[in-house]
Design a protein that fits this description.
Strands 2-3-1-4-7 form a 5-stranded parallel sheet, sandwiched between helices. The protein has a two-stranded antiparallel ribbon with strand order 5-6. It is of the alpha/beta class. The longest helix has 15 residues, at 167-181. The chain starts with a strand and ends with a helix. The mean pLDDT is 88. Helices cover 48% and strands 13% of the residues.
């Protein structure tokens, strides 16, 4: 499988993060996840981090200037000659800024994987997610439940639901996705970069589909 600069897009809960992380491991390249960068910023309790928290907890998109600042700095780092990027861009404006940053770094995208899932499946996946507040171990009450009710298998802490996985917030995130992010598919399709992969099946099968799509190319 070729080593690529790849962007993974799709609705929240489609499995982008899981598949991007697994793909980055198979390729031996960095997994650049906007969500992780934002969580690091919020954990720092800086002025910028507090601004980010306000947007995330409402389920709104973080403003372009903040996202572009985080992502551009990461992409320009020495270890990011090749990468798997997910969670950014989410708007066409962000995509234009990313295109420019990648051009300036001489690191253009090779392929964009559009991972699909229905709204019903997205709601089922996201509202079932839980996390240990101590060790950060993720669970899902349907697909990957803890052994003992809603307690962490590792340390016994009561599991929590992230603010952005609450039902009302999930529905709002889907509305934002359909309103703003779907335009990205058209943006990258015009560049001849998009391959579409069905994300509705099990993790291993979806990974196989992604690998085949990368081998075939856009």
């Amino acid at each position: 499988m070729p080593i690529v600069r790849l962007l993974m897009v799709g609705p929240p809960g489609a499995g982008k993060g899981t598949q991007a992380r697994r793909l980055a491991e198979r390729l031996g390249v960095p997994h650049i996840a906007s969500g992780e960068l934002l969580r690091q910023a919020m954990a720092d309790h800086s002025v910028v981090g507090d601004q980010v928290r306000d947007y995330v907890e409402r389920g709104d998109l973080v403003p372009d200037e903040l996202m572009i600042h985080f992502i551009s700095a990461r992409i320009d780092s020495a270890d990011a000659e090749h990468f798997v990027l997910d969670g950014f861009p989410r708007t066409v404006t962000q995509a234009g800024a990313l295109d420019l940053a990648l051009q300036e770094a001489s690191r253009p995208l090779d392929i964009v994987v559009h991972l699909t899932a229905t709204d019903e499946e997205v709601v089922r996946r996201l509202t079932g997610r839980r996390m240990c507040p101590v060790c950060q171990h993720p669970y899902h009450m349907i697909y990957n439940p803890p052994a003992d009710d809603e307690k962490c298998d590792d340390d016994g802490s009561p599991l929590v639901t992230r603010t952005d996985d609450q039902p009302d917030t999930v529905m709002h995130r889907l509305e934002v996705y359909h309103r703003d992010t779907e335009e990205l598919i058209h943006h990258y399709d015009k560049q001849g970069l998009v391959v579409t992969v069905d994300g509705m099946d099990g993790m291993e099968l979806v990974s196989e589909r992604i690998d085949k799509a990368i081998e075939a190319g856009p």
